[in-house]
Write a structure and sequence with these properties.
mainly alpha, MetI-like fold, disordered N terminus
């Protein structure tokens, strides 16, 4: 669209404030990682590589493990039981959390149990898991479920409990069935809490995955860490930790991206 000589020049549309904030966040995000790596490099120079390998040494060791195929195979094996355990936890936590949030008798019945189990450190369940499920794949899946499900139940039930009752009453007055009210009103109302539970759960799943591989039969990434510790190969140990950090970060960012696409009514600057 053009303006003629006698018309008022077109004004440039102002840039949304959330866009500038997003760019600022991206810069700070990158800067914090760079500064952290520089601090790590400086500190590592004062120690032997056996005690604290520098970031450059860790990067070289990671490349070696990737080139040999050791790391990709270990990551793929670890993701198998992590993904299955996380999926089972979601299948339990989401419907159970919704029921606890909306039905008083379900909440009163299960809330003491959930809080009782949640108060127990997750690692304390390892001996029972070894007795019930053994030391291998099933046991690793079980530990992932236990470490994820209770955090997710608490968040989902809180979201369901805070859903706007007026909207549910409007749906009921228009003759919507219980399933229609759940699908069309309750779930959209709870979406921010659901995504928060998913993000919290996926971080716990990464934590549980490596915990299972270290405390049960050593396998995949846990096996690499144990063997590296015996060889005093701190670069390999830190490399696995870096992979775990990046995995958790990537999964959270993917869920945040999906949340922004799904929860389109939320402010752009909201996380």
């Amino acid at each position: 669209m053009t303006a003629d000589a006698n018309s008022t020049p077109l004004l440039k549309e102002p840039r949304p404030p959330w866009l500038a904030g997003h760019r600022s966040f991206g810069f700070l995000y990158t800067a914090s990682i760079v500064v952290g790596l520089l601090v790590w490099q400086v500190i590592a120079q004062g120690y032997s590589s056996f005690v604290l390998a520098p970031p450059t040494g860790v990067a070289v060791r990671l490349l070696e493990m990737v080139a040999s195929g050791e790391l990709p195979v270990a990551v793929a094996g670890a993701l198998r039981h992590m993904a299955l355990g996380y999926a089972i936890a979601c299948g339990i936590a989401i419907p159970l959390g919704l029921l606890m949030g909306r039905l008083r008798f379900v909440h009163d019945l299960l809330d003491p149990v959930v809080n009782f189990v949640y108060a127990v450190p997750s690692v304390a369940w390892v001996p029972f898991i070894m007795i019930w499920f053994g030391l291998y794949f099933e046991a690793r899946v079980a530990l992932v479920v236990i470490m994820c499900v209770f955090d997710m139940i608490i968040v989902v039930s809180t979201g369901a409990r805070n859903a706007d009752q007026k909207l549910l009453n409007v749906g009921r007055s228009f003759g919507a069935s219980a399933w229609q009210r759940t699908r069309l009103i309750l779930l959209p109302e709870c979406l921010p809490f659901l995504f928060t539970a998913l993000r919290l759960g996926v971080v716990r799943a990464v934590n549980a995955m490596i915990t299972a591989e270290l405390f049960l039969a050593a396998a995949n990434l846990g096996s690499i860490m144990k063997q590296a510790a015996v060889r005093l190969d701190s670069a390999a140990v830190l490399g696995v930790l870096a992979v775990l950090c990046l995995l958790g970060l990537a999964l959270q960012e993917i869920l945040l991206l999906i949340e922004k696409r799904v929860c389109v009514w939320r402010p752009k600057g909201a996380s």
